[in-house]
Design a protein that fits this description.
Order of helices and strands: HHHHHHEEEEHHEEEHEHEEHEHEHEHEE
Helix content: 25-40%
Low-confidence stretches: 68-78
Shape: elongated
Largest sheet: 5 strands, mixed
CATH topology of one domain: phage-related protein like fold
Structural class: alpha+beta
Length: 406
């Protein structure tokens, strides 16, 4: 624990500056890492920031030790300001746990806000580029550009969350650190759930992609039954050297926009690999010299040449964590296109932020339930906090990713 933020000081700030200013000032300090959730004492905040809070704590403690009834005045305690600030403290604890340094989900998707919680259709554009080949002469109308039936479908959003309560015993014993850890555990669990959902989409373990209402797989070789996608974004090269990256890029560049038959206009930005391939991937991207010569020839008989990866390859982001391997193992166990393959050898190249999306109905939200709820009478829960998010991962354009099922 660093500095201790005193409840008396918070009460003074709220009284002099108002609750909105105090919350904003605290959030700025959280964002700058000047303070942390562990720097607060719920007991001290309750004592100083609630009406007759000290009396309530003393009566609770006496009642707990000796038995008896709590005075009626305790139920009139106003915890509004404290609940707001406590909710802010817990929100930061949960958010910090959700934004784990090991998570790569945000690298693999672009986020778009939506208020359509059910399955959502996103139409394409009917006007193709060839219609712009000629010039519009004076007096002629402009060609119409409209929405086509070449739509994709984003799945219905899923709501995830949980509730954690603050009991009278926790306040009396000032178990702030314990509650903060419970909040972080909730945040980590929510973060892992979101991470796994995104990775499942990115590796093709879950295939929500539809084209004009027809369900399609995210990855396919164009020949296997059920994989006739109209394009090929799969090959079987192991990740050994720069030629394997080049082979994946060649497949990537060959794919075309289905509506215009034009190049997709993207360069690969991410190399998604399992932890077993991380060092291999870094070595390939950073290679500066290669040996050329007959296979098996002595080094003295080989020529050393200088090579340089193209600009896009030098700037590739290598995305990897243990959840990539875990989700591949789960996909292999489930069968389908991954049956019988080695999870450690799979790798992906492409522009995932354009290929995959995270449809967000609402981001991480922490709502507080103040004192006086039924939970207080039934379970001695003084305050309850609910953390939740609602969203779903989807596939927008699978042509912008290539998989190697080595």
């Amino acid at each position: 624990m660093g500095i201790l933020i005193r409840g008396a000081d918070l009460k003074k700030l709220v009284k002099e500056k108002g609750l909105p200013w105090t919350r904003h000032h605290l959030q700025e300090s959280f964002d700058k890492k000047e303070i942390a959730p562990d720097d607060f004492s719920l007991r001290d905040m309750f004592r100083h920031m609630t009406e007759r809070g000290g009396e309530a704590l003393d009566d609770w403690e006496t009642s707990r030790r000796r038995g008896g009834h709590i005075t009626e005045a305790i139920h009139a305690v106003d915890t509004g300001a404290m609940a707001n600030i406590t909710g802010q403290i817990f929100f930061n604890a949960i958010q910090d746990a959700m934004v784990n340094d090991q998570f790569i989900g945000d690298t693999l998707v672009s986020v778009f806000q939506s208020n359509l919680q059910d399955e959502e259709k996103i139409p394409g554009i009917s006007q193709v580029t060839d219609s712009f080949a000629g010039s519009i002469t004076e007096g002629e109308p402009y060609p119409s550009v409209g929405l086509s039936e070449q739509f994709i479908t984003i799945p219905a959003a899923e709501k995830k969350g949980g509730i954690i309560g603050v009991t009278k015993e926790a306040l009396i014993a000032d178990r702030t650190g314990f509650l903060i850890e419970r909040m972080r555990s909730l945040g980590k669990a929510l973060g892992i759930r979101r991470e796994k959902s995104i990775i499942d989409i990115a590796i093709g373990a879950v295939n929500p992609y539809t084209w004009k209402g027809e369900a399609r797989l995210t990855y396919g070789d164009g020949a296997t039954a059920g994989e006739a996608l109209g394009f090929i974004n799969e090959h079987a090269n192991a990740l050994v050297n720069e030629t394997d990256i080049q082979a994946a890029e060649d497949i990537y560049r060959r794919m075309r926009d289905p509506a215009t038959n034009e190049p997709l206009g993207y360069s690969p930005t991410v190399l998604l690999v399992t932890p077993a391939l991380q060092w291999q991937a870094r070595g390939i991207i950073n290679v500066t010299q290669i040996r050329e010569g007959a296979v098996g020839a002595a080094p003295a008989q080989q020529q050393i040449g200088t090579t340089r990866m193209p600009g896009w390859a030098q700037n590739l982001t290598i995305a990897s964590n243990e959840w990539v391997r875990d989700r591949l193992l789960a996909a292999i166990a489930a069968g389908g296109g991954w049956a019988g393959l080695d999870a450690d050898l799979a790798w992906f190249l492409g522009t995932p932020s354009a290929a995959f999306v995270w449809k967000e109905i609402w981001p991480l939200t922490v709502a507080e339930e103040p004192m006086g709820s039924p939970a207080e009478f039934e379970n001695d829960v003084v305050m309850r906090f609910k953390a939740s998010y609602k969203g779903v991962a989807g596939v927008r354009e699978p042509r912008l990713m290539v998989v190697s099922r080595a």
